[in-house]
Amino acid sequence: MEHPCNVKKIKIFAGVNKQCMTEILQVDLANDSRAETFQIHTKICERTSRLPWPCSETSVHGSRVVAMEYLPSIWRVSLTGIIHDWKACYLERSRLEHGEASSAFQESHAELTRSGRLPSGLQQCWQTPYAPFGRTPSDTDIVFRSRSGVDFHVHKSVIAKMSSVWRDMLSFPQNPNLDPDIPQVVTLTEDTKTLDNIFRLCYPTTHPHFASIDNVCAALDAANKYMMDPITARIENSLLQFLDSEPLRVYSVAYIHQCGNVARAAARRLVADPSFAYPLHPPPEFNYLPAIALSTVAAYRRKYVKAALEAFGDHKWMHSGDHARRFSESSTSSATGGPKTWVWLECTACPRGPPMMVKRGAPVVNNMVYPTRWWWKYFDAAKEELSLRPFGSVVAEFQLTLPAIAAASRCETCGPRALLDLMEYTDAMAERIREATHKVQVELPFGKAGSCSHT
From the CA atom positions of the chain, what is the Rg in Å? Predict the structure, then answer.
């Protein structure tokens, strides 16, 4: 009797080492003993569809067993491909993802060139720019050549509108001995990836994808060098995609390039990290970032924390502020005739905490209220956390409210109401903190404060 393959799905991973594996195949298998053949995905990008996936390690994972009559098994897996130096493939991936200026590309290129293992087809691929900057359309009238020899065929009229430097350069008289039908060739110092990015922003075509902050920095340097003001703001905004992963480096780059709104957005993210100025791995911009840049964020964070703590510690608002639970001395219900005041102010059965001053004037005895002890424990814990992360959402976090609700549940008065009261209070308080901190602005020595969708 034949033994069927009863594994329903397999995944195949490949990579240059065991710590850097990428899934190259995920497929369902038939529940029988017949051999099946599948095409492994080797395509890295549109221009390198023939390039094999760089691979020196493979791994096969089976999952989703069809039936348990036999132990999960696959009799045989055979992988066939091209015997190709995986370092050459890795070199191309480094170039596509990080550009020719990246250290990964430069080191791999030098090693393969010295050893004579650089495939000629790969080098030829690099000499052809991405569309629409090839030899077609035929109406292009100037060629910009990257430092690696890749030619970008563009239009003088478009480039002149985008760059004041090139507009002035193109206004110079041309050599009368040159053939007017042959486009002028201008060699630039930028790499191919950088030129592709900035030219793509000049044309109504696909917006460039910046795979790393290094790519953005190279494009920003080029745009500033050639005074390409119409596209500079778009390049600056590309930094925002790295806010979550590298806020400190985004701030550093934005400060150096004087990108006001981006720097403000990044500074707001840095508020969440009290030790932001002492990273384990400092960004390369720290080599020339002025000390005042970090001092500015530190001062901004202090103001931000202060505003959050003042809003949270406004006990007068909790007692008699403009909300449905404000205290009424004439009755046990709120002054608006709606729900009662907060249960931690109303309960007389729970142990009391320290007194709280809620209003001025009148006899001193009427200035004080005595919240329950469980609420004070919540307040102290939330205040400590808020000093580290001064955001409105912090006061409603589960790890802060749960101990308070658990303690309140032991009281017959607080138990039925503590959860809803605390949820209503934290929602309102979170909004108050957001309003208070939103008014705090980072004071930069450049650029005006403006709106930013990533604040």
Answer: 32
pLDDT of residue 203 exceeding 80, the answer is yes
Instruction: Give me the chain's average pLDDT, please.
Output: 78
The two structure tokens encoding residue 211: 């795979």
Question: What own/partner pairs with CB < 8 Å and gap ≥ 24 does 248-252 have?
Answer: 248/276, 248/279, 248/283, 249/213, 249/283, 249/285, 250/213, 251/293, 251/297, 252/283, 252/285, 252/286, 252/289, 252/293
* Interacting residues of 413 by C-beta distance below 8 A, sequence separation 6+: 343, 346, 347, 348, 349, 350
Instruction: Encode pLDDT of 105-134 as tens digits.
Output: 556 555 655 665 555 545 544 455 556 676
pLDDT in tens, 14-51: 765 666 567 777 888 777 777 788 777 554 444 444 44
- Tokens in use for 110? 């030098």
> 196 near 133, Cβ under 8 Å?
yes
Task: Return the closest-CA partner of residue 354 out of 403, 320, 309, 315.
Answer: 315
CA 435 to each of CA 24, 318, 389, 394, 429: distance values in angstroms, whole numbers, following the listed order: 48, 16, 16, 14, 10
User: Hey, how many other C-beta atoms are within 10 angstroms of the C-beta on 327?
Assistant: 19
Q: From the centroid of its chain, how far is CA 38?
A: 36
> Which residue, among 295, 187, 166, has the nearest Cα to 230 in the 3D structure?
166
Count CA within 13 A, CB hemisphere, residue 81.
Answer: 19
Number of Cα atoms under 13 Å in the Cβ half of residue 264:
20
What are the CA-CA distances from residue 195 to residues 140, 183, 201 (Å)? 16, 18, 10
What is the CB-side half-sphere exposure of residue 350 using CA atoms within 13 A?
A: 27
> Angle formed by the axes of helices 213-225 and 229-237, to 10°?
170
With CA atoms as reference, report the closest residue to 38 among 66, 87, 72, 80. Answer: 80
What's the farthest any 2 CA atoms get from each other in the chain?
101
pLDDT of 263-307, one tens digit each? 999 999 999 999 999 998 899 999 999 999 999 999 999 999 999
Reading the block at residue 279, the tokens are 């990273």
